Amino acid sequence: MQQRVHFSQKLDELRMLVLRMAALAETAARNAARAYLTGDSDLAEEVIMGDVDINAMEDKIDAFTLELLALDQPMACDLRSIIGAMRMSVNLERVGDEAVNLAHRAVFLSTRPSMPANPRMEQLAGQVLEMVSRAVRSYADKDSALAAQICAMDHTADELSLKVLKECINVMVEETRIIERSVHVIMASRHLERIGDLATNVGEGVIFIKEGLDV
Fold first, then answer.
1. Where are the alpha helices (DSSP H) in the chain?
2. What is this structure's pTM?
3. Burial 64-84 (b: 16+ CB within 10 A, else e)
4. At how many degrees (to 10) do helices 2-38 and 119-141 cross?
5. Which of 25, 46, 103, 114 is the most exposed place for a label (fewest CB within 10 A)?
6. Which one, of 138, 128, 148, lies nearest residue 198 by Cα?
7. For 168-196, how does the pLDDT look when each residue is reduced to its tens digit (9 = 90+)?
8. Which of 53, 75, 55, 72 is nearest to 13 (CA)?
9. Are 68 and 82 in contact (CB under 8 A)?
């Protein structure tokens, strides 16, 4: 009985580690999007510098989960919780990477003449950040129904990213002087869209932990 209580405490500790990493990744995504939309290069640099903390959390979670698997030999739901945590840490680390990529775009564009406002990018950023928020919340609350909503939201993010691409192509055709900046906008939309994909992966991880379904 005491061994079981000790193991449950370890699972709770693992869950808190994942939630701390999720908070870092979500903050990075939000700050990168804000830096891009506002042209705040200082905030973008903060995102870039802060990625080391997200990477460190992934390493810590990896070590912790491997120890649990090796020493405690968990079964059923406990095993899913550990494997799910490992999957999430990988996806959260990639959210951090994409946030850094987006921050680099923000830094570059801040050195160039401003582009015309692109409402689609604001829509895309808002959609993706809401997906990340719901993904984190679904894990915190163990809410598989909320996690399932993220998959549907991903279609909207994909559509918005495609619209940004088409609009940028039209702009480049009409005004060749902003081709370089337009390419960076396209890449920024891709980074946002990828963050949405990763948030979807996190949501699928919640469903795996809660229901044992590999979506």
1. 2-38, 41-72, 76-110, 119-141, 144-174, 179-211
2. 0.92
3. bbeebeeebebeeebebbbbb
4. 170
5. 114
6. 128
7. 888 887 777 788 888 999 999 999 999 99
8. 72
9. yes
